[in-house]
Specification:
Blueprint (H helix, E strand, L loop, with lengths): L1 H10 L7 E8 L9 E4 L5 E3 L5 E5 L7 E5 L6 E4 L7 E5 L4 E2 L2 E2 L7 E3 L6 E5 L1 H4 L17 E5 L7 E5 L2 E2 L3 E5 L2 E2 L18 E8 L13 E7 L10 E8 L4 E10 L4 E12 L15 E14 L3 E17 L13 E20 L4 E18 L2 E19 L4 E19 L12 E19 L3 E12 L3 E15 L2 E12 L3 H4 L9 E4 L6 E16 L2 E16 L1 E4 L6 E6 L4 E15 L2 E16 L2 E4 L6 E10 L5 E10 L2 E2 L16 E2 L2 E11 L3 E8 L34 E10 L3
Parallel strand pairs: 1-7, 15-18, 32-36
Antiparallel strand pairs: 1-4, 2-3, 2-5, 5-6, 8-9, 10-11, 11-17, 12-13, 13-14, 15-16, 17-18, 19-20, 19-46, 20-21, 21-22, 22-23, 23-24, 24-25, 25-26, 26-27, 27-28, 28-29, 29-30, 30-31, 31-33, 33-34, 34-37, 35-36, 37-38, 38-39, 38-40, 40-41, 41-44, 42-43, 44-45, 45-46
């Protein structure tokens, strides 16, 4: 059947169009994302993708000169004589004045003009603007993604996109679904910053290729790859902070002459000092020690390409009461989470026709996640296994029509053991549960491209779950570019996800709340609609980037996390009523002068859900966010200065209760607060030194843990987190690399 489909698709090609392909890089061999490619005296144009690649149809006239341009680089004109050979184009930085090379500031976050999705790419330049110790700390300068603590005792963090929690964001590593289930609460710390090549953030409904789970968007991490020309021989990164956090990262790449290459990446993290600045007897941040290793291989042939890799992680996380704050019983409340995680993947593809991008690819991945956790007298141990397979076929019938289709299989198994004290016992729930879900799916996605002016993509997939039966996921996108100065995008689509309550929310066990889980929870199901406008306005010889976007997510079914109906309980049940989010965001970026760029953004969020019989604002969700981030690099590129100011709006707290008939256990609402981060980097030939500060406004949430003086009582709650738990922090780091050229 597989070969029949391939043969059928090959014969369906209507006709071929001659194209010119190539790659655009800077003089350090770094791919330039979003470079403009245009035929001289013509109207046909395109831009480079995240790898710097492009393809463009030959013009109808005899003009064969390509104009390549990008902000901050010298324009170049290339005469094309041989259309069968790919072009390798190098753009020089800045402009030459009296034999002095003026280096301009490269854009760190790139809006993908040619993508039909509303997609941002955070490249290496952006990731170096802050400490970026791990994935969770990579979004400091990004206005769309929020990262916050979910719990004060465990240090669990979550991403928020479009006003909703990170479980509704599909996490991918190199387009493979990852960090799901038990890995979700702490997975943001499993990806070291120095390992990342780039991060792609796609908002709203996405492609059906990677599955049905993206309800609000996708975040895809691309790791350093051995086959890239810019891969260093060796790279090191050392980091230390005043909070007692120390990190060491190293990677090494070997490129063999027989088209094979390999990269070894290693990471060590130690943050084991005890800090209790607010004197509540509990550690402000957990003590963490982590070992992380990754090895990957690549074979890049003319027709066949292959990649494979393995990862291994070991992490010990401890928190709770400090020794000098024991209760009257003398017993300390301790939290301990030990994690062992192993991953492996292979990606292989056979290319039938490079000109038409006709290929078939197979992705296989698997992971084992073992986590043993104790929360005072409770324990929760989970062993999660995952296997994922995806077979994909793609072809371009012509520059106008293209098709992608494929099959997928996903297996999740959860082996869970737990025990709770009598006063927190889950009603009629056993202490041992094994659950598994197998999902088989197929998809087809068609793309129509009308001269790069109209771009339309429609996809549909059908999946059958062993737990929830058959369901269909439709998604559609439209992009309209009337000229090179503005893009309009529309999107609509559905998303589903299975909810694994204890695995995804195990950090809630560190509170005294009774956990109630309804039986036979249905899949979560939501529609997402989005509209966005991206404009590129020439202004005083530079380009002003303006973006405005609106997204609406409407849940048809949801597993509600209810902390309002009873302040001493947290209940999980299927939605009975309305649940939705409205998000409106505007953003502007402008390079005011050579080497300096300023970004300002503002976002309004309206998220409501029905808790019991009341429709309320979603608790612990800020109503608005403002961001102002500036970056300046000196003319010779030796110094770089980065500053980010965040204004985090206030919001609603879960419903409090009365302590003595008068005083409330906590306030009904929380106020807005500001945070300022700064970093200065000094560049040398092959190394750099960076010094920075986080939360320089020194804002800290007061009393983040309710009932901290008696954690064994029934008022103890560490989940009321809306602000930072640590104050001002200063850090220093050194980066060193040995390049190939």
């Amino acid at each position: 059947m597989k070969y029949l489909l391939i043969t059928l698709f090959s014969f369906l090609s209507l006709h071929s169009f001659a194209q010119v392909q190539g790659t655009v890089k800077d003089n350090t061999s770094t791919p330039i994302i979003g470079a403009n490619i245009l035929w001289m005296n013509g109207t046909t144009g395109t831009i480079t993708n995240e790898e710097g690649h492009f393809s463009i149809d030959l013009p109808n006239n005899n003009e064969r000169r390509l104009i390549i341009s990008f902000i901050g680089y010298q324009n170049d004109t290339i005469r094309v004589t041989d259309t069968t050979q790919p072009l390798d184009i190098i753009l020089n930085d800045g402009v030459e004045l009296s034999e002095v090379n003026v280096v301009s500031r490269k854009m760190g976050t790139v809006k993908m003009r040619n993508s039909i999705l509303n997609e941002d790419v955070l490249n290496g330049a952006e990731l170096c603007r802050a400490a970026c110790c791990n994935l969770g700390e990579s979004f400091t300068t990004n206005p769309s993604v929020d990262v916050s603590y979910s719990d004060a005792a465990t240090g669990a963090k979550q991403i928020k996109l479009l006003g909703l929690s990170g479980t509704y964001v599909q996490m991918l590593t190199e387009n493979i679904p990852n960090y799901r289930g038990a890995a979700a609460p702490y997975g943001l710390g499993y990806v070291p910053g120095p390992w990342m090549h780039s991060i792609q953030v796609s908002k709203g409904t996405s492609s059906v290729k990677n599955g049905y789970e993206a309800l609000t968007g996708q975040i895809n991490v691309e790791f350093k790859k051995p086959q890239l020309e810019e891969a260093d021989w060796v790279a090191l990164n050392l980091f230390a902070s005043t909070a007692g956090r120390y990190e060491a990262n190293a990677d090494a790449t070997i490129q063999f002459k027989n088209k094979w290459s390999t990269t070894f990446l290693a990471h060590y993290e130690n943050e084991t000092e005890a800090h209790d600045e607010n004197k509540d007897g509990f550690l402000d941040v957990p003590q963490v020690e982590q070992y992380n290793f990754h090895n990957r291989w690549a074979y890049m042939g003319e027709k066949f390409v292959f990649q494979a890799g393995i990862k291994a992680l070991s992490e010990e996380r401890t928190s709770g009461q400090s020794a000098h704050h024991a209760t009257t019983s003398g017993e300390l409340y301790k939290v301990g989470i030990d994690t062992e995680r192993y991953e492996a993947f292979t990606k292989s593809a056979y290319i039938f026709d490079r000109e038409k991008n006709t290929n078939i690819a197979l992705i296989l991945s698997g992971s084992i996640h073992n986590q043993d956790a104790t929360y005072g007298h409770k324990y929760y141990n989970v062993d999660q296994s995952n296997f994922y397979a995806s077979l994909m076929f793609e072809t371009e019938f012509s520059p106008v029509h293209s098709l992608s289709t494929g099959l997928s299989f996903n297996h999740d198994g959860y082996d869970q053991k737990y025990e709770f004290p009598q006063n927190n016992q889950m009603c009629s729930y056993p202490s041992f549960v094994y659950t598994k879900e197998n999902v088989v799916g197929a998809y087809a996605q068609y793309t129509l491209n009308l001269n790069d002016q109209w771009l339309m993509m429609a996809g549909i997939r059908g999946d059958h779950s062993s737990e929830h039966g058959f369901f269909i996921t439709p998604r559609a996108h439209i992009k309209y570019s009337p000229n090179e100065y503005v893009n309009f995008r529309l999107s609509a689509g559905k998303g589903y996800r299975s909810h694994h309550v204890l695995a995804e929310n195990n950090y809630l066990l560190s509170s005294s709340r009774t956990i109630n889980i309804a039986r036979d929870l249905d899949m979560e199901e939501a529609w997402n609609y989005g509209v966005s406008i991206a404009s590129y306005i020439p202004l005083f010889g530079k380009t002003l980037n303006l973006n405005a976007e609106y997204y609406y997510t409407n849940f048809l079914n949801q597993v509600v996390v209810d902390m309002d109906s009873n302040p001493h309980e947290v209940s999980f049940y299927n939605l009975k009523g309305d649940s939705y989010s409205h998000v409106l965001q505007v953003e502007a970026t402008y390079p005011f002068f050579e080497g300096f760029s300023l970004t300002a953004a503002y976002r309004l969020t309206d998220v409501k859900c029905t808790y019991g019989d009341r429709k309320l604002e979603k608790p612990l969700t800020s109503k608005y966010k403002g961001l102002l981030t500036a970056s300046y690099q000196t003319p010779l590129g030796k110094w770089q200065f980065d500053a980010t100011l965040q204004l985090n709006g206030g919001g609603r707290m879960p419903t409090p209760y009365s302590l003595n008939g008068k005083d409330l256990s906590w306030q009904k609402n929380y106020d807005s607060f500001e945070q300022l981060n700064l970093q200065v980097t000094r560049y040398f030939r092959n190394w750099s030194v960076y010094v920075g500060g986080e939360n320089l406004t020194d804002f800290v949430q007061k009393n983040p843990i309710i009932g901290a003086d008696n954690p064994w009582g029934n008022t103890f709650d560490s989940s009321m987190i809306w602000g930072p738990m640590h104050g001002r922090k200063v850090y220093i780091g050194v980066r060193w690399n040995l390049p190939r050229n």
